[in-house]
């Protein structure tokens, strides 16, 4: 598979009426982390994620007739308001995928989008936003050319396109667990797009993720900047090897229902991500004191009670608490009485393993 497999060569005949498509697409949380990239949004290492159910972006894309062809013309609305900063990132992205959708300069576009979760709440909004937009673009493409891709081909194409907007977004196109980045442990995996993990023990279908919000401020170092600090990182080579190994072991644990290996790898990956940040040339730290306190408590409580709970972190200070449905009640008590006891606003977002994107019109 190469980029040319996804390139479009035809232009559309002028449309006379607006064409509208709407998609809802979820965020995802990485269990093996993508950190560092090369070339055109290619990952340095394989990553494995869990698709979320409740944290999603809903995106409506309308293509209007346009008199003169030219560069991308986009009107961008976020949560009911026109937003210049996000709009610029989206316009740059659309410019960059002009070779896949040559009709982008032939129509005027209106993009309206909103999230079901607060912006900067420790949930990767770029993952849901770019996967929803990629799905809308693929749907418009299919409508313009009357192409009927089968469901799998359609999702793979959308995953390819989403990756070009934000790496982690390519993993949001599928239900359950997803791998992005070629890994010998998973035939069919690719650096160009994500693929769903087919063989998952039913135990893991009840996985939950409660996000314990430590701080909602914008991060001092963006993910994009963080990725770039992996170039020339003293531990880069070892990191890639370790991610390959962790992906293979986590795939096996998902298959066999091995919760202890799952917990060990997931926490190892969260620590590694933040260790890589701290040990890059221009080291930085995104965890707060409260992040460390909560992590310490989770590990202690697991030891004391034997509950199957563990944590992961995104590129930020908020803690994702992972647990299984059968232990809901006990875990909820621990969240309220212990983990969030310093958090007067009791800021949490309860999510779980999700079933992937949905077309809304
Ligand atoms: C720490 O996908 O947000 O969440 O490709 O530059 O848009 P860009 O980065 P992004 O990076 C996510 C990094 C991470 C780990 C992960 O999701 O795998």
Topology:
Elements: E1 19-32, E2 37-38, E3 42-43, E4 47-64, E5 73-78, E6 81-82, H1 84-96, E7 108-115, H2 125-145, H3 151-165, E8 177-180, E9 194-196, E10 207-212, H4 223-228, H5 236-256, H6 259-278, H7 289-305, E11 310-313, E12 319-324, H8 328-339, E13 348-352, E14 358-359
Parallel strand pairs: 5-7
Antiparallel strand pairs: 1-4, 1-14, 2-3, 4-7, 4-8, 5-6, 8-9, 10-12, 10-13, 11-12
Task: Please provide a written account of the structure.
This protein has eight helices and 14 strands. The chain is globular. Helix 2 (125-145) crosses helix 3 (151-165) and helix 5 (236-256) runs antiparallel to helix 6 (259-278). The strands form three sheets. Strands 1, 4, 5, 6, 7, 8, 9 and 14 form an eight-stranded mixed β-sheet that branches. It has helices at residues 84-96, 125-145, 151-165, 223-228, 236-256, 259-278, 289-305, 328-339, and strands spanning 19-32, 37-38, 42-43, 47-64, 73-78, 81-82, 108-115, 177-180, 194-196, 207-212, 310-313, 319-324, 348-352, 358-359. By secondary structure, the protein is α+β, with helices and mostly antiparallel strands. The mean pLDDT is 93. The two termini are 31 Å apart.
């Amino acid at each position: 598979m190469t980029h040319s497999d996804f390139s479009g060569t035809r232009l559309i005949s002028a449309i006379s009426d607006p064409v509208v498509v709407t998609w809802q697409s979820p965020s995802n949380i990485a269990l093996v982390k993508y950190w560092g990239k090369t070339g055109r949004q290619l990952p340095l290492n394989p990553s494995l994620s869990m698709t979320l159910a409740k944290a999603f972006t809903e995106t409506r894309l309308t293509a209007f007739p346009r008199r003169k062809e030219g560069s991308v013309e986009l009107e961008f609305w976020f949560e009911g308001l026109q937003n210049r900063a996000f709009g610029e990132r989206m316009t740059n992205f659309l410019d960059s995928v002009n070779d896949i959708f040559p009709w982008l300069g032939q129509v005027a576009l209106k993009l309206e989008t909103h999230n079901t979760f607060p912006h900067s709440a420790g949930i990767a909004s770029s993952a849901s936003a770019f996967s929803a937009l990629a799905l809308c673009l693929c749907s418009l493409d299919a409508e313009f050319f009357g192409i009927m891709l089968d469901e799998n081909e359609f999702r793979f194409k959308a995953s390819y396109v989403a990756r070009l907007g934000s790496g982690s977004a390519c993993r949001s196109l599928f239900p359950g667990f997803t791998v992005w980045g070629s890994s010998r442990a998973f035939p069919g995996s690719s650096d160009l797009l994500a693929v769903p993990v087919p063989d998952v023990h039913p135990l893991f279908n009840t996985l939950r993720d409660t996000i314990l919000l430590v701080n909602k401020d914008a991060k001092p170092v963006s993910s994009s900047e963080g990725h770039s600090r992996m170039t020339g990182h003293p531990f880069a080579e070892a990191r890639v090897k370790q991610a390959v190994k962790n992906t293979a072991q986590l795939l096996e644990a998902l298959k066999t229902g091995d919760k202890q290996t799952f917990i060990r790898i997931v926490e190892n990956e969260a620590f590694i991500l933040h260790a890589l940040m701290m040990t890059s040339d221009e080291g930085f730290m995104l965890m707060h004191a409260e992040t460390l306190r909560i992590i310490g408590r989770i590990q202690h409580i697991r030891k004391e009670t034997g509950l199957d709970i563990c944590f992961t972190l995104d590129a930020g200070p908020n803690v994702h608490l992972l647990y299984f449905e059968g232990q809901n009640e006990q875990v909820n008590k621990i969240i309220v009485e212990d983990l969030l006891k310093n958090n007067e606003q009791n800021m949490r977002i309860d999510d779980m393993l999700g079933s992937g994107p949905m077309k809304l019109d």
